Amino acid sequence: MKIAVECKSPLLQKSLEIFLSSHLSSLKQCDIVVRDFKALDDDRTFYISKDSGSDLIKPFSKSALILALEKRYETLSPQPKEAFNSFTDGTADFSILEKRIDILTQEYKENILKAVRAFYEE
């Protein structure tokens, strides 16, 4: 999945670039364009806003962003079910799910530690 970021808000632009650093691409070569404004002429637009009609509502977490982008990517380029259900020797390949769980667990752990540190530093 190749993603371009085009935002009017410099803070959101930089945050998205950090969150999506491994997926960034140029505007011409990308699959999805993440924007904080509506662009009706581009089907690849992934709209982030506080509005209920957006693809992702602010505020959001990195994991929520990634999951929403992956869901959008699946709708843009439908792939055969075999690509998602990899079976080898009759067992399912759960490596993608395991990575996702690891990322979510790590993010959750970091948030808990931040909260505990902030509580004891006050």
Q: What number is the mean pLDDT?
A: 82
* Shape annotation: globular
CATH topology of the largest domain: Rossmann fold
Sequence stretches where pLDDT stays below 50 over 5 or more residues: 80-90
- Distance, first to last CA: 42 Å
Structural class: alpha/beta
What's the name of the CATH homologous superfamily of the largest domain?
A: Response regulator
State which percent range the strand residues make up.
15-25%
CATH architecture designation of the largest domain: 3-Layer(aba) Sandwich
Task: Let me know the largest β-sheet.
Answer: 4 strands, parallel
- Count of individual domains: 2
Order of helices and strands: EHEEEHHEEH
Tally the helices: 4
The helical percent reads 40-55%
In total, the number of strands is 6
Rg measurement, Å:
17 Å
Summarize this entry quickly.
The chain is of the alpha/beta class.
Please tag this protein with its features.
4 helices; alpha/beta; 122 residues; 4-stranded parallel β-sheet; two-stranded antiparallel ribbon; single chain
Overview of the structural elements:
This protein has 122 residues and is an alpha/beta fold. It has 2 domains: 1-78, Response regulator (Rossmann fold, 3-Layer(aba) Sandwich); 81-122. The chain is built from 4 helices and 6 strands, in the order βαβββααββα. It has a 4-stranded parallel β-sheet. Strand 5 (87-88) and strand 6 form a beta hairpin. The model is unreliable at 80-90 (pLDDT under 50).
Per-chain topology:
Blueprint: E1 3-6, H1 10-19, E2 32-35, E3 45-49, E4 56-57, H2 62-76, H3 81-84, E5 87-88, E6 91-92, H4 95-121
Parallel strand pairs: 1-2, 2-3, 3-4
Antiparallel strand pairs: 5-6
